[in-house]
């Protein structure tokens, strides 16, 4: 599995949409794949509020809302931001949701947001994805703080809104998710101590990107248990520890011997002499 920066993900999406020719199928795929995961986490008995922004992360949110609504979930959408700011693809998916008789509330400032924000226990967060720039502005900042305060279950789409995708610290405020369903590939900030806890439990959904496109734009690979096992040489059942070479570990530090201790332990566990 590849790990991407925001820039790499944009390049991968762009190539997939323009050169391979997926066009706006990619957003439909993304929203549907996320919705499928959500059915495993949230039951139909729970009323769900989907908070969407005006960018493409919000477009994913509209597809998630429509997909769940059409299979019998109790869904409402709260759009944080003016209709005029909706990107064309987002406007398209908003209209599909409305045509399916879905309900959308539009909140353009703190006041309308406070007004619509009552009893939002289960929230899908599609306010901002990898397109975050600078410190969080209003009314998104208020939306994030209300969601964090009130909601008992928060599922973020792609990344928790307000969190940087790459290395870097939190600029102001971010969604503290219980689950995050990330699109295409894990993002760098999932592995950075100052940001990883915001993700809660995370999962990755595949939306139609080809592996060669990932290889074209990134070379950062996540070593999963399966990948690790594939790279290990096969040992005969009768093998002796001396049959597989000897390991030499050089390192150490007077007051921080942890890395050395772990390397030795790993060597022992893999059967080194
Ligand atoms: N067609 C596509 O391009 C695809 C996009 N995808 C989704 O699109 C996302 C990226 O979309 P975008 O590039 O449109 O960006 P986002 O939707 O992540 O963010 C842009 C939106 O956030 C707002 N925003 C940014 N910084 C802000 C700040 N500091 N304070 C308040 N508001 C702020 C912007 O005004 C804009 O409305 C991904 O995370 C993913 O969820 C996926 O659906 C795959 C396909
Ligand atoms: K989000």
How would you sum up this structure, described in words?
This protein is 39% helix and 13% strand. The mean pLDDT is 93. It folds into two domains: 6-217, YjeF N-terminal domain (Rossmann fold), CATH 3.40.50; 237-269, no CATH class. By secondary structure, the chain is α/β, with parallel strands linked by helices. The protein has helices at residues 6-20, 25-41, 56-70, 88-99, 110-116, 140-150, 193-196, 211-217, 225-231, 258-269; strands at 48-52, 75-80, 104-107, 122-126, 153-157, 179-183, 201-205. Helix 1 crosses helix 8 (211-217) and helix 2 packs across helix 3 (56-70). The chain has a seven-stranded parallel β-sheet, sandwiched between helices. The structure holds ligand NAX and potassium ion. Residues 13, 26-27, 30, 53-58, 60, 81, 87, 89, 128-137, 140, 157-158, 183 line the site of ligand NAX.
Short characterization:
This protein has 273 residues and is an alpha/beta fold. It has helices spanning 6-20, 25-41, 56-70, 88-99, 110-116, 140-150, 193-196, 211-217, 225-231, 258-269; strands at 48-52, 75-80, 104-107, 122-126, 153-157, 179-183, 201-205.
Features of the shown structure:
273 residues; alpha/beta; 7-stranded parallel beta sheet; 10 helices; elongated; binds ligand NAX; binds potassium ion; YjeF_N_dom_sf; CARKD; NAD(P)H-hydrate epimerase
Distance between the termini: 31 Å
- CATH class designation of the largest domain: Alpha Beta
Helix segment tally: 10
How much of the polypeptide forms β-strand, as a percent range?
A: 5-15%
Total strands: the figure is: 7
Uncertain runs are none
Work out the radius of gyration: 22 Å
CATH architecture of the largest domain: 3-Layer(aba) Sandwich
Instruction: Look at the structure and name the CATH superfamily of the largest domain.
Output: YjeF N-terminal domain
Mean pLDDT: 93
Structural class: alpha/beta
Biggest sheet, spatial arrangement of strands: 3-2-1-4-5-6-7
Could you say which small molecules are bound to this protein? ligand NAX, potassium ion
> Could you give a short account of the major beta sheet?
7 strands, parallel
């Amino acid at each position: 599995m590849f790990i991407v920066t925001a820039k790499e993900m944009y390049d991968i999406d762009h190539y997939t949409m323009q050169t391979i020719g997926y066009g706006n199928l990619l957003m439909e795929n993304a929203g549907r794949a996320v919705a499928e995961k959500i059915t495993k986490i949230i039951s139909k008995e729970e009323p769900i509020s989907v908070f969407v922004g005006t960018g493409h992360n919000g477009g994913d949110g509209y597809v998630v809302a429509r997909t769940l609504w059409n299979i019998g979930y109790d869904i409402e959408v709260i759009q944080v931001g003016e209709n005029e700011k909706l990107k064309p693809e987002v406007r398209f998916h908003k209209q599909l949701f409305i045509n399916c008789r879905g309900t959308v509330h539009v909140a353009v400032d703190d006041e309308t947001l406070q007004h619509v924000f009552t009893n939002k226990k289960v929230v899908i967060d599609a306010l901002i994805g990898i397109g975050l720039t600078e410190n969080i502005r209003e009314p998104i900042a208020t939306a994030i703080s209300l969601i964090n305060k009130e909601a008992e279950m928060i599922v973020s789409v792609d990344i928790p809104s307000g969190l940087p995708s790459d290395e870097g610290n939190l600029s102001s405020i971010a969604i503290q998710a219980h689950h995050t369903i990330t699109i295409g590939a894990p993002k760098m900030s999932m592995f950075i101590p100052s940001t990883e806890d915001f993700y809660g439990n995370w999962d990755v959904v595949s939306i139609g990107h080809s592996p060669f496109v990932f290889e074209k734009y990134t070379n950062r690979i996540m070593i999963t248990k399966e990948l690790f096992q594939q790279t290990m040489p096969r040992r005969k059942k009768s093998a002796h520890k001396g049959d597989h070479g000897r390991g030499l570990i050089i390192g150490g530090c007077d007051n921080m011997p942890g890395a050395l201790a772990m390397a030795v332990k790993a060597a022992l566990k893999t059967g080194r002499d």
